[in-house]
Structures
1.
Amino acid sequence: MKSEHGSALAATAGFTDPTSLYVHIPFCGSRCHYCDFTTFVAPRSVMDGYVEDLKRELAMVSSLTSKPLRTVFFGGGTPTALDSEQLALVLSAVTEAFDVEPTAEWTVEANPGTVNEEKLSVLRERGVNRLSFGAQTFEDRLLLAIGRSHDSETIESSVQLAQSRGFTRINLDLMFGLPEQSLDDVREALNRVVQLGVHHVSAYWLKVEPGTPFHQWREAGLLPLPGEDAEADMYHLVRETLKQAGFHHYEVSNFATEGEMAEHNLVYWRNEPYLAAGVGAHGYVNGTRYENHRVLQRYSADLMKGTRPVLETNQVDAHEAMEDTMMLGLRLSEGVSKRRFLKRHGKSMEAVFGEAIDWGLRNSLLTWDQDSIRLTDRAWPIANVVFEKFVE
Ligand code: SF4
């Protein structure tokens, strides 16, 4: 357990110690055609070595906070690509290195087809209380076209297995704007999600990232994307269908039923600090953002030497921090509170961003909601246009 930690980094006044931890598990069974995440297809021996590296890093990272953790998030990659023994080791490494609140939210990302009774038992026994499955779509032809390694039936059987093992907090990721995806495909996915009885949905636009097969195919004219108008219709359909099904649209891409918002992700959107461990992971501590090595050998070599595997750090200056608070906070339906902004940054929001706020109000894209400024309903589909106004 964590005890003596006066945080070296958190000693500076004005910054709070992080209470959230992200742990990156960079392994997948195969690689999806749109993916640019730090992830590898690796044999068991490499995964074993990585688990040992993570244990070392978690012990080091724990000295960056004096507070107990309130949220822990295992992302990837596919954390459930680890076997049950490896999962048990990394979960235990967190509780050995940190104090964790008894009511903490523990989320593990999983892919359909990578969970079984044994793994789910290990997760439950070690405190995991939330699962996030990458479903993306329920059309088998689309799953195949984007390089997913599961079919739609496997999405349902994995979610149902988790539910039968006592997991009530389940998120499903969906994607829209996929090649040859129709509005009916999106409607079908939403219906299936609602039928499965999950309480959280993340619905993302496909972004074609450099270095991915999709990027190559698009450059060659081989990627039949639906186009902006169709994507706008899809987003509208997602919002309306999920609202009717009792979900609250609380972030640009996220929907939750009452009390089911993702606490860990709220930390990012509220621009609060968080710790991160794992290859390529990003953290934010004491006003500094850090990024770990993305190359597994470099990451591992640093840990073997007894040093943190940090590739680069960026001390966020005062203005950048204010921009982050606006850009991230406006993603939320709760918006950005004037009072919290002043307390956090020592300046009033209107004094710094008066012009952008006036522009948003004039164009009915922003509105005041008591103490907070937030997006209007018509601004959600074009949220990026608003965010840009807050960046120099
Ligand atoms: S499962 Fe996720 S992390 Fe793994 S390759 Fe596919 S998109 Fe990337």
2.
Amino acid sequence: MKKNYFSRREFLGIGAAAAGASLAAKTILLAPEPLFASALPVSPSDRLRFGIIGIGMQGNWLLSSAIELPGVECVKACDLYDGRHTLAREITDKPNLPVTRRYEELLADKDIDCLIAAVPDHWHKQIVVDAVSAGKDIYCEKPMSHTAAEGVEMSDAQKRTGRIIQIGSQRVSSLICKKAKEMVDQGMLGDLMLVEGWLGRNDPTGAWEYPPPFDLSPENLDWDKWQGTVPKRPFNPEIFARWRCWKEYGTGVAGDLLVHLVSGMMFVLGWNEAPRRAMAMGGILRWKDGRNMPDVHASLFQYGDIPVYMRLNLGTEMPETYRFQGSKGMLEMTEFGLSYTPQTGKDSSPSYYDGSFPHAMREAYEKKWHEENNPKLGQEPMPETVTFKGPDYDDVKPHLWAFFEAVRSRKPVVEDAVFGHHAALACHMANESYFRQQAVHWDAASKTIKS
Ligand SMILES: NC(=O)c1ccc[n+]([C@@H]2O[C@H](COP(=O)([O-])OP(=O)(O)OC[C@H]3O[C@@H](n4cnc5c(N)ncnc54)[C@H](O)[C@@H]3O)[C@@H](O)[C@H]2O)c1
């Protein structure tokens, strides 16, 4: 009597002819793009002079990266904390680099061609709107906005002024995302069924418990201005360093981390819209340090007809991963690699439902199945899993480069204020749903998030 349990091959869901090929995955190393190869040598008069606003944790990285690009130069730095004036001079190796606490001075400076802003989320809107209104192009960090209404104002300002705004979710300039997009555009996923993504951390730094600079004081920091329009609190170094923990200044794990997943997903799939609906759950489960933003946040979105399920967790480390699930296979994407596993969408063995057939019927059914479905001589085996590994590349420099190239060419960037607004809306909807404990939707007519 024939066994009616699965062989390992059957369990893995692969046909006999395909077994060898499918089990042996192929790995291809993605070559880094010759990023600046196309750029012509830049004459000193064509050099782009940029100013930077905010030289904190991200700003110091952007500044160090930007000054390594050809044809660009930092000519002024602004921060409300004087310690970061020193830092900007150290990074640029310009002991006399002009520095200021007032970003307004950079907007008025005719010698500045464009700006980079890496300030806390509650300052993005004002600085971007002021910059483009003053005729400056600006690279502003993610998430674009602190609220949905701010995002509307910022995309309107882009339209009104025609200036270049690029938002800083650098996934859209990553080699991995580009390869994934190419594969999706070629139809390798078939019909898209579902997207999932996750990211987890499990340490105090990952949970934003950063050490404040130990000389910080109201003398070397304009604390009043730092707080912007948020109701004023007494000087508090922890808020200065750990502002992500509070909704008054930050946008939680949604704006800090989910926005990267959403921006990368939008780029790979060629989407540029807000989710239709969102439902989120979570809580402050691990870091009970006085924060008011959740440290675990699971969100389910609907984009068109496609469910998108994203999980952020500051209590368990999990490398950033996406899974794009389609009728022709699955694309798994991490920060450093990409794996595509094709699926035929067909049975690879006689249906196990035949276990419910009497012996003779089962034998007849299986015989017929094999006659009709066994691979024929010369038939193509099922394509194998392909893995692309990223080189030791950096996506911040290509993203900055995309901005500087746009400033020069006046050609639009991928991650402009409309894209940035749509990506940020997913985060705001996830936060609104969490706080309201209700599903929410984006009401395009009133441009508001409604329950
Ligand atoms: N793209 C990424 O991967 C990435 C990574 C980290 C942070 N970020 C984003 O970068 C932004 C900054 O984050 P951070 O961690 O560097 O914050 P941070 O607190 O370390 O630095 C912000 C700096 O901005 C200064 N500042 C605040 N308001 C200002 C104002 N009105 N004028 C001038 N200076 C002002 C502060 O004094 C501070 O030095 C945030 O929006 C964050 O989400 C992006």
